[in-house]
Amino acid sequence: MTEPRKARVATASLAGCFGCHMAILDMDEHLIDLMQRVEIHRSPLTDIKSFRHRCDIGIIEGGCCNEENVHVLRDFRRNCDVLIALGQCAIMGGLPAMRNAVMHSDAPLRECLEEAYITGRDIRNVTHNIPNDPALPLLLDKVYPCSEVVEIDVQIPGCAPTGDVIFNALSKLLDGKFDGFERESIRFD
Amino acid sequence: MSGLRFEIDGVEIAARDGQTIMEAADAAGVYIPRLCDHEGLRHQGGCRVCTVKCNGRSVAACTEPAPPDAVVENETPHINKMRRDLVEMLFHEGNHLCPICEASGNCELQAMAYRLDMTDPTRFPYLEPCRPVDASHPDIALDTNRCISCGRCIRASQDIDGKGIFGYVGRGIHRHVAVNGPDLAHTDATIDDVAVSADVCPVGCIIRKRVGFSRPIGERDSDHGLIGSNAKAKADD
Q: Which segments of A30-166 are extended strands (E)?
């Protein structure tokens, strides 16, 4: 009898800081237990950049701030059975979403870019331009949570979620027994 | 002194005449979730998070007089689902970015989301309003992005401080809390006002300057259990 195949997991970091991927590594020795049960497919951890197999679990860090994020997120939705939004940025936009509402501004994205590249104090930008190379992904008007772009199956809250919370959630999902979190372990920060 | 009795989730509660359901429940150590209600302030019945079913009818526990011989439902899946939706809508109505908020960990809105298990993918849109920050006062700042219009600062300022620094303006969805003047610096607000004390604002809207992040992670309110988990101990004191 052949051994059951390991569950395939894919991960991606969109408009995030990679902190949630660090939190995955922060499982420490639990990673050994987890790796008995899963293999990591498309992920920054393996440097595999496109789906060659369908995956059982997709883990998304970060929301969508540019068109490439949307493309990757839709690709994950198409290729993953269960899609997880990991961390506050994926769940509700997080820190990047601060650019969605800038005080007294009708065009918050423009104001944000101008302050970052042109008008802000202590800026050394010799071109005095906002970067517009065609190779750069087009920025979206605002930062969108993942659930506004595709259907999300599970959210793991936290900034970043602790390694234990991620491990417990993934273990229960692999057992087919995920039914939410212990309320005492929920954190939005 | 006359008294009456009623039942919350099968627990018999004794109440004095004139007490509300919430006052009687608090005295008996039974916690009913609430946001706009605060110990020492008059009741408002605004947020409806304290909604309970009294003989099958939905009422705000903070304003409803304790009913003789009634059966009150508090912690049922159905009621907690409605409370969770209310709290979720409060999150979506303002800009509640917990990771950058200095009230995180000491925030009643956040604590209520933890208690009510607000972790499922949302069905509501984020309104992302553009609201002002008022940092004009030397000791106090207001980040109205985080205001949930509970009105606790209004009642504290009017009833306890006798000042009326805060008040509601606008109607319907546009109703919000404003200061009585062009900005906070042009009111007679001081850092010693009860209205700006740490406990009155349930979220991170009223900020006392230079004290943010003074309590490290592990020592904040949310690190000591779910909100309301000490209700029994408080009642016994």
A: 38-40, 55-61, 64-66, 80-86, 139-144, 154-156
Return residue ranges of chain B for CATH 3.30.70.20.
83-212
Q: Are strands A139-144 and B11-16 parallel, antiparallel or unpaired?
A: unpaired
How much is the ipTM here?
A: 0.92
CATH code of the domain in which A75 resides: 3.40.50.700
Mind telling me how many Å the CA of B66 is from chain A's nearest CA? Answer: 30
Phi (first) and psi of residue A66, to 5 degrees: -145, 175
What is the CATH number assigned to the segment(s) B4-75?
3.10.20.740
Residue-level pLDDT, tens digit, chain A, 189 residues: 677 789 999 999 999 999 999 999 999 999 999 999 999 999 999 999 999 999 999 999 999 999 999 999 999 999 999 999 999 999 999 999 999 988 778 889 999 999 999 998 888 888 889 999 999 999 999 999 999 999 999 999 999 999 999 999 999 999 999 999 999 999 999
Q: Give start-end residues of each CATH 3.10.20.740 domain in chain B.
A: 4-75
- Residues of chain B neighbouring A98 (CB-CB closer than 8 A): 97, 100
Q: What is the pLDDT of residues B62-92, one digit of tens each?
A: 999 999 999 999 999 999 999 999 999 999 9
In total, how many domains does chain A have? 1
Which string of DSSP letters, residue by residue, matches B62-93? TTSBPPTT-EEE-S-HHHHHHHHHHHHHHHHH
Residue A156 lies in a domain: yes
Question: Does the residue A109 lie in any domain?
Answer: no
Nearest to B54 by CA among B20, B88, B86, B30: B20
Which has the closest alpha carbon to A84: A136, A17, A18, A20?
Answer: A20
Give me Rg for the CA atoms of chain B: 18
CA distance, residue B222 to nearest chain A CA (Å): 9
Q: Do A95 and B99 touch (CB under 8 A)?
A: yes
The Cα B67–Cα B19 span in angstroms is 9
CATH architecture of B83-212: 2-Layer Sandwich (3.30)
